[in-house]
Specification:
The protein is 73% helix and 0% strand. By secondary structure, it is mainly α.
Length: 146
């Protein structure tokens, strides 16, 4: 009579599901970084437009720089959101996996930490940009964010 084996004893290590989840988490990380870079570029475009206006002494509507500021900030915050969601989704998937699906001796939580660190850094960048806006508005130096 055959005895029932436990899930972990004698099974071959088949980490394909884990590596698929890891690739997905890191793909979302690349997407989040791209959104953040695009947002920062848009936000800085308003600053470029202000410099261009100042160099040419031509009037430019304040809404142009204000809109680029807010659109850029939204893209940065979307990157923060997607990076955070990817981290938690990966963590939840790893929790459901059997130990036979996890590679032995591999740091399985690295994609979670990478996504989380990217989200924290991007959130700090967004708070910095908001801080510059508040500083400019309270000092009256530049009512249109750059």
């Amino acid at each position: 009579m055959k005895t029932a084996k436990s899930k972990n004893s004698g099974d071959k290590c088949d980490p394909q599901v884990f590596f698929s989840a890891e690739r997905s988490a890191l793909s979302w990380n690349r997407t989040a970084i791209t959104l953040m870079a695009f947002g920062f570029t848009i936000e800085r475009f308003g600053f470029f437009m202000q410099l261009q206006q100042h160099a040419e002494n031509s009037p430019m509507p304040k809404e142009t720089t204000t809109m680029s500021y807010w659109v850029g900030l939204v893209f940065i915050l979307l990157g923060v959101l997607f990076s955070s969601l990817a981290a938690w989704q990966f963590r939840d998937i790893v929790k459901t996996m059997d130990t036979s699906e996890l590679p032995r001796g591999y740091h399985t939580h690295m994609p979670f930490f990478v996504n989380l660190i990217v989200a924290i850094i991007a959130a700090a960048m967004a708070f910095f940009l908001l801080g510059t806006l508040v500083h400019d508005l309270t000092n009256g130096t530049n009512p249109a964010p750059a």
